[in-house]
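Hi there, hope your week has been kind to you so far. For a while now I've been wondering how a particular protein folds. I'm sending you its amino acid sequence along with the backbone structure tokens. Could you read through the record and tell me how the tokens relate to the sequence? Take your time with it, there's no hurry, and the full record follows here.
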Amino acid sequence: MRYIYCDESTFSEPKPCIGVGMLITETEISPSAIEDALQRLQNDPDILIEPAKKLDEQTLKRRYFHASEDSKNAHSHLCEQINKLETAEFVCDFFDKYKLPTHERYNDYLYHQASILSSIRATNTIDHVIFYFESRDDLSVDSLKKMYNDLQQSSLMGIYDLPFIPHFFPPVSFEIDDKYNPGLQFVDFILWTVNRHVNGESTWFERINFSSKTSFSTESGSWGGQDINIGDGLREPKVYYTVQDFPVNPDSKINKNILVDFYLHAARIIEFYINNPQHHLNHLFNEDAEEIVKRKKDQCFSNYFDKLASLYLKIFDMAPLITSSTTSQEKEFLLLSKKYMSLLLRNDLIHGVRTKIWLESVRRQLIKNKTELLDF
């Protein structure tokens, strides 16, 4: 299981960025972590000293931490609990809205983009993922599902350009919770430290015991982010290929026959996993999957290749299709199939549309003249 706690923030001046942070853990953060921090705060003699006294009284009264409203005493005790995490990662993306074109200066748009970018890194797993978001008036589980569906579609289409990068499609669920959720309190604090760090004050950012940190920013500073491991970081899924396994000039390897082979291979793989179900793939096999098999010889199945390509690409790294025993020649074929099955989803590319139209004609001919090739 993977737990992802999400927070949104508008950074303070002088760099008022729109940011989204996600704290990812392999064990659910317990309410006892917050209770322990509150107890330590209550026993801290410094809470009697102004100006912290009033802030600390408010924190203890409401029974949850909120970084922008807490004193340094509360920050210290919450930070201590965060540093006890053994396997966690924090990722965030933020945009400087004043450095983007005028038509893109919309908070909702920037939050959406930042959420998608951070989610890509957060869902790098085959395990079930639970997202926790803090409740707000315009947020619903349905809107979160739509955002994630947008992410999945973008990932599927992006495989054409980046087939040598693993793409995972785990089972995902969403929870909307309040400020008492302990994980949401943790991520609120960490994103607050990033806010201050981006604006030149790194005291609290440096107080978190990160085992590794990676930061990035565009040259203009319009987009930046952090990827930070806490404790041992997260377990990464085992992948048995690298960019070196992908041919330098992939188009030179492609002809009409191999495109047909990719189509038949994808159909065969889907039918295999339908007949040989695996627990970690069950969420991928819905009515669309059954339709791909049941109607494989139906010439009137107009969106066959959209569904075939999408499901094949979702299975590819989740299964995985490339294992420790896969030969170099097999890896090349499989990685090329990954790229060119994604091409069939690229309705924004002329050669993507033309390739799909041509394969549809091939499929009709196979159904009419060589139907035995579709019996796997």
The chain has a mean pLDDT of 91. The first helix runs from residue 31 to 42. The two ends are 35 Å apart (CA to CA). The chain has twelve helices and seven strands.
